Amino acid sequence: MGVALVTGGTSGIGAAFARKLAARGYDLVLVARSEERLAEMATELRALGRTVEVLPSDLSVRADVQRVADRLEDPAHPIDMLVNNAGFGVHTRLLDPDVAAHDRAFEVMCRAVLVLSGAAARGMLPRGRGAIVNVSSTAGFITMGNYSAIKAWVTSYSEGLSVELKGTGISVTALCPGWVRTEFHDRAGIRSSSIPNSMWLDAEPVVDACLRDVDRGKVISIPTVRYRVLIWLARHAPKSAIRAISGSISSSRRKPVTA
């Protein structure tokens, strides 16, 4: 099948992508910050008979991003699929004078996506084939602070890139899942107990649905019928209603401040 590079490939959706792609016959290049977790995931995938390369990288550091971009454009070791999955929740309020968390979020989930997708596409163009998956979120269709704004950008960017690459043999897919059971919410300091059980998804079927959509050449992948219906409603509802719903969700998920 070729070689797939997955950022944030040691946990959550990224790890599910790594496992599913390995099962499809891809060799892997895994990118993450933790060398220990990279080694553990590499051992697991090599046991399946796959070749695994690891690139310890912090995608908030531009030099690290460039190192991954150089790997994507290496003609001697071509990449057939890029999964831009690295990311994290942004729980900082928009009025907070300290914008460090926002800066890091822009670097990892916007700039790195831009740089790595461009590098992957340039590496794929001479061969006339390839696939780019950018992990976005249904949060991009509502208005829950900077995370929603960032994911709206990822989805819009992916659509724009798909337009530029039309006819080249390279597909672009924005994966827009709902709430997925991973470490994501705990790391972000988000209270998840208020989210109804019916709205939770598991990472493996989310990735299965995305890869089916990649095979079909779909640009926007929204796993499950219930989320596709909800997002259709969000796209057609009055903006004032979306803001009211977003405010209610944000309030219910916010962890209380303790001394």
TrEMBL record:
Molecular function GO labels: oxidoreductase activity
- Recorded GO CC terms: membrane
Superkingdom: Bacteria
SUPFAM superfamilies in alphabetical order = NAD(P)-binding Rossmann-fold domains
Q: Which Pfam families match?
A: adh_short
Is Manganese one of the keywords UniProt gives this record? no
Q: Which UniProt keywords apply?
A: Oxidoreductase
Ketoreductase domain mapped to chain residues: 2-179
Q: Which SMART domains match?
A: PKS_KR
Q: Which family does it belong to?
A: Belongs to the short-chain dehydrogenases/reductases (SDR) family.
This protein is called SDR family oxidoreductase
